[in-house]
Amino acid sequence: MSPLPARQLVALTATAALGGVVAVGAVALLGGLEGDTTTVVNETSAVPRAATVPSGKAMSVNEIYERAAPGVVQIASTGRATDTSTGDTPSALGSGFVLDKAGHIVTNFHVVEGADQIRVSFSNRDTVEADLVGTDPSTDIAVLQVEASASALTPLPLGDSDKVRVGDPVVAIGNPFGLDRTATAGIVSALQRLITAPNQFTIDHVIQTDAPINKGNSGGPLLNDHGQVIGVNTQIETGGISTGNVGIGFSVPANTVKDVVAQILQTGKVEHAYLGIAGHAVDADLAETYNLPVEAGVLVEEVRSGSGASKAGLEAGETQVVVAGETYILGGDIIVAFDGKKIASIEELRDAISAHKPGEKVSLAIYRDAKKTGVTVMLGRQPASAR
Prior knowledge:
By secondary structure, the chain is mainly β. It has helices at about 60-70, 110, 255-265, 285-290, 310, 345-355, and strands at about 10-15, 20-25, 70-80, 90-100, 105, 115-120, 125-130, 130-135, 140-145, 170-175, 180-195, 200-210, 220-225, 230-235, 250-255, 275, 275-280, 295-305, 320-325, 325-330, 335-340, 340, 360-370, 370-380, 380.
């Protein structure tokens, strides 16, 4: 994989035992559209949503741990030997948590990627083999299932990650470096982060926390002060100076997890809508400097061959310019609305796409050659990899 330009890249590491280096998604490449970001198809969820954070007294870290730790599991996966000269067998050690009394367990895709055998260890030291129900590399989520009596399973409730605010106290429980069911505490230190998924698309709306998480925490829960799972711990920022925690970790938000898990439980797979372009957001400086017809929208800088955007006739720009150190490609269409909703940023366009399914038709309002017009696009299915 060739490196991204320095302005687009921040070093991260996946938090499974053998997690590799990944990068924060570049805003110039749009998943669900094209490149390093992803979209999630919203479907009726089979996983109950918490409408609001429950009222009542917040729990202490000890109370959260006592209630949630029995539902946190350790996951060990092994694959086929890839080095015939040494016979080394790839393996990974991560975390997960019990979703329901049917034995479903949520973890990270990168914890079980390529695994031939997956073993799950519970707090009572019982270890059982797990079946892989389904995965979604675009959000780094996987669902397993184990055969266990309902009385032996402690499901953890999923909270509403849209209610999370910066400064909220959180607790992470997982198995860093194989140290089973370790609790760490901190706060939500930022919201709406973008991180790169294993297939190089970007995961949106990610929660950033300073609760220490390390290799082996992957797939474990990030809990609020009412003991609800608000995120699935997946990556850490290393700053390029270490392989351990430096105070910045990232969790896939619970509402994304709910939608992904619902699709996996229904069909065994997840499909993401895909427009098939790369682009940049228009800002006032760019619009003024180059006399663009609008001050907000998304520049179409590339159109992927065979995509819905290509079939609809969207046109990409060809003239490269630099404004305030940022490179743009002008001369193509500018998307200003999606199904009647104004689009002023890349994030808004991604979210608009995520509300649709592959195969659905959507209307785009665009400016082409300074004239406003419209096109109808049939959204496709996101490819297996952004590369």
